[in-house]
């Protein structure tokens, strides 16, 4: 929700051009499951606003255990995202 095109963060960054850092606190690490695609949305947001530093603090991994059908997808998305040196 926060990182989709036309979302709250798009509105904030458009209204305040000098935003340099966004700090996000979350219970769960973002996933990349169908219909959510949070990691992809975050990545696209950072590509759109390269001057913004994003800090994400989370308390739990989300669906990375072997018991979930989306585990492989989430793990690969997280590995790909982290290999791009996110800001």
UniProtKB/TrEMBL annotation:
Q: Name one Pfam family in it.
A: APOBEC4
Query: What protein name is recorded for this chain?
Result: C->U-editing enzyme APOBEC-4
- Source organism: Pterocles gutturalis
């Amino acid at each position: 929700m926060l990182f989709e095109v036309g979302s709250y963060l798009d509105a904030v960054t458009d209204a305040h051009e000098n935003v340099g850092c966004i700090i996000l606190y979350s219970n769960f690490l973002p996933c990349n499951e169908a219909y959510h695609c949070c990691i992809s949305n975050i990545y696209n947001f950072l590509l759109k606003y390269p001057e913004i530093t994003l800090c994400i603090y989370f308390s739990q991994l989300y669906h990375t255990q072997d018991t979930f059908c989306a585990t492989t997808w989430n793990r690969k998305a997280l590995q790909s995202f982290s290999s791009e040196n996110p800001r």
